[in-house]
Amino acid sequence: MITEYILVIIFFSYLTKKDETTCVILLARTKNITKGCFIMESITHLINSIESFSKQNFKFSQYFQALNLLGKIPDTVSYRLNNIDVIHHLEEASKHIDWLNSFFEDKINPITRKELSKLKSSKNKDTQIPYADFKIDEPPIFRDELVKQISFEDIIRESYLKPVKRRSDDSFTFDGVCPYCGAPKEYIYDNSRGRGQYKCKACKNTFTLKTTVKEDVGIYCPYCKHKLTLHHDRNGYLVYVCQNHDCSYYKHNKKIQDSDDSDSLLTSSKQHRLRYHYRDFKFNLESLKNVSNDLNMGYNLSRIHFDSRVLGLILTYYVNYGLGARKTALIMKQVHGVRISHQTVINYANGVSALVKDMVDHYPYKIGSVLSGDETYIKVRGKNQYVFFWSDPSSKIITSHTIYPTRDTECACRSIYDCLRHYNGNIPENLTLITDGNPIYNAAQVFFDINGIRFDLHQVIGVKNKDEISKKYRPFKQIEERLNRTYKQNYYGTNGYDKIEGANSYMILFVCFFNFLRQHSSLKYKTPVTGLFDNNMLMPDQWLKLIEISHKYHPADN
Predict the structure, then answer these.
(1) Burial of 231 (0-12, 13-18, 19+ CB in 10 A)
(2) 208 close to 198: Cβ distance less than 8 angstroms
(3) Which residues make beta-bridge pairs with 379?
(4) Which terminus of the chain, N or C, has less C-beta within 10 A?
């Protein structure tokens, strides 16, 4: 035993000082490296074992510090050290450490160096942790009815009941009413011979002095039938959690936590999600369907004082080139000789926006199964308002573009629903959405999954490709960021907005230009929607053509 003890100490001392990383990799791959000493079960076990033996080695070395201070070994100590057994074990330990040095240098280190080089050259250096923040659990049990309260008066009215006959009124100490129907004590009798349980003759319910009528209304865990408690009140949804320690779901995850698969329960806060969670969203799918973004800007284009050519020129300068209303009015005056105010430019733009909105929203676009999304902000009276852009990376068609006052889960769901409407009920089975790491998209995925609409969500994290998902889908995310910059270039010319309605009005015009009129270099200088215009048609005439086409989609004209 002494030999094995010393050998193990020396061995692990060697590991910790010389080649710890190499040995960690080696021992992680073999469970019986020490044969008779102990069995390695995990990296954590290995590290703990090394630390333990290092402490023991330090303790062992401290025994010789006193001898160094003495400068001379006392005769009594020398007698014991010169024992034949001690000398034998020290010689054997020296031979063993020499053998181990040679073995590791010749047999182990060449292999581990190759393995380490493979790890260094591996493409998957940093993997994305599968956070459990937005894991979808089984749907809970809903109970919408209260325990029916039976009225004593109704019972008496329907059937004649006599009070309870007692042998002695003094022996019955109960002084109250039935908690279920309100029957007086004359209709209550002792049901346990003085042990505290009573029974109502009217409603036939048993109770004690501590009994209260429980409300069954609530949300219950599907695993243990325990009522869920409100844990968080988030912006857009409520989080309910099962707090029952005997819940089978909780016990199962406790076992996983102690295994190698514990990462599947890890959340973004580095905590393990063990309990059953349910998210009760403060909105539903019908509310998303019923929301209208109609633009009531209050201007009739039939009242314009100039010919249609002037209207086309104004839209070209104001939208295509991103010039402000004042610059547009100045160009119309100095270049075309048309005197017009900047407010008239805004009125014309608002009128066209309201007219083409239905065409922009309901045109039968040809979009694929991959959509990328991103949000950016603009200023409305100095406050941030948020644009949720979604587009088809292949065709460059913008599928969602609404500006919202907040950036929360509900707004994310509304923007995604705008995209889904373009499929006209034929949502692709392989629908894939690509976003950044904002958790509102995770919550949106949960919301649609609960409502039977499923899609894959891939999130590009950070600015570096630290995981395979970010590396694969970053080009799609960059396309969306380029769209944000293109819009911002046009937006800067407007000098901001006074109302969010005005911001959405301009957004409609921008999307109309982007989808129908803008030539994209990635599309070989073609527009996302083709076949609407002649090749020689000028831009002002194209705007007028779009206004003409939009009448087919406008409800007032149908």
Answers:
(1) middle
(2) yes
(3) 384
(4) N
Task: For residue 383, give the 3-state DSSP assignment.
Answer: strand
Start-end of CATH 3.30.420.10 domains in the chain: 355-557
At 227, is the secondary structure helix, strand, or coil?
strand
Kindly give the pairing relationship between strand 198-200 and strand 188-190: antiparallel
- Is residue 354 within 8 Å of 295, Cβ to Cβ? yes
Closest by CA to 37, choosing from 5, 15, 65, is 5
| Angstrom distance (rounded) from CA 431 to CA 436 | 17
First to last CA, the chain: 97
For residues 396 and 436, give the distance between their C-alpha atoms in angstroms, rounded to a whole number.
Answer: 19
Residue at token pair 């010319």? 493
pLDDT in tens, the chain (558 residues): 333 434 444 444 444 444 444 444 444 444 344 444 444 444 555 455 555 655 555 555 666 656 655 666 777 777 777 778 877 877 887 787 778 778 777 877 788 777 766 655 544 443 445 556 667 677 888 775 544 566 888 888 777 788 888 877 677 888 888 888 888 888 998 888 888 889 988 888 888 887 665 556 678 898 988 888 888 888 888 889 999 899 999 999 888 888 877 777 777 667 888 899 888 898 888 888 765 555 555 556 666 777 888 999 999 999 999 999 999 999 999 999 999 999 999 989 999 999 999 999 999 999 999 999 999 989 898 889 999 999 999 999 999 999 999 899 999 999 999 999 999 889 999 999 999 988 899 899 989 998 889 999 999 987 787 778 888 899 999 999 999 999 998 888 887 788 888 899 999 999 999 999 999 999 999 999 999 998 889 999 999 999 999 988 866 555
**Of the candidates 435, 446, 508, which has an alpha carbon nearest to the alpha carbon of residue 474?**
435
Going by the DSSP 8-state scheme, the letter that residue 243 receives in this structure is: -
Does the pTM exceed 0.70? Answer: no
Polymer length in residues for the chain: 558
Q: What are the angstrom distances between the C-alpha of 239 and each of 233, 265, 278?
A: 6, 17, 6
**Domain 355-557 classification at class level:** alpha beta
> Judging by beta carbons within 10 Å of its beta carbon (0-12, 13-18, 19+), is residue 433 exposed, middle or buried?
buried
- Collapsing DSSP to helix, strand or coil, 387 comes out as strand
